[in-house]
Design a protein that fits this description.
Length: 145
């Protein structure tokens, strides 16, 4: 399965977090994968591991988003947009295998498919601020390229 398809499945699984308690998520995950019987074992493993890593970093991801989305509380954001942003910030900040530009582009594409009106520009704008915050932090720490 291609990375874009895997990312879309990760988004769909993460989206369930907005509607279920954390203790319900193992059952939700089981139901999710039952709906994908054709999914290869290695693809399922990839989705599960990435989901778990995102959930582990969720407090840090939400803090980054809270700082970048000036004037927006996370609770006011659309659930699809918030989920897309969380996935993208994880990839930008914590997944060295995904270039920042790819993470942003994929997030915009997801927002076109799953977000509301104006979602692509909103997602792109917030992620642009995350990128600028990352650059400023790198310069401050003397790790800028």
């Amino acid at each position: 399965m291609k990375r874009r398809e895997l990312r879309e499945h990760i988004f769909e699984l993460l989206f369930r977090v907005e509607f279920n308690d954390r203790d319900e998520m193992p059952e939700q995950m089981k139901l999710f994968f039952e709906d994908l019987p054709q999914l290869a074992a290695e693809d399922q493993s990839y989705i599960e591991k990435k989901y778990e890593r995102i959930m582990e970093k969720l407090p840090q991801i939400d803090q980054i988003l809270g700082e970048a989305a000036e004037g927006w509380k996370l609770s006011r954001m659309g659930k699809a947009e918030l989920t897309i942003l969380r996935l993208a910030v994880y990839e930008m900040e914590f997944d060295a295998n995904v270039p920042v530009g790819v993470a942003v582009n994929e997030a915009v594409e997801l927002s076109k498919k799953f977000g509301g009106d104006g979602a692509p520009s909103f997602v792109n704008g917030v992620l642009g601020k995350v990128g600028k915050m990352e650059e400023a932090e790198a310069e401050k720490n003397g790790t800028a390229e």
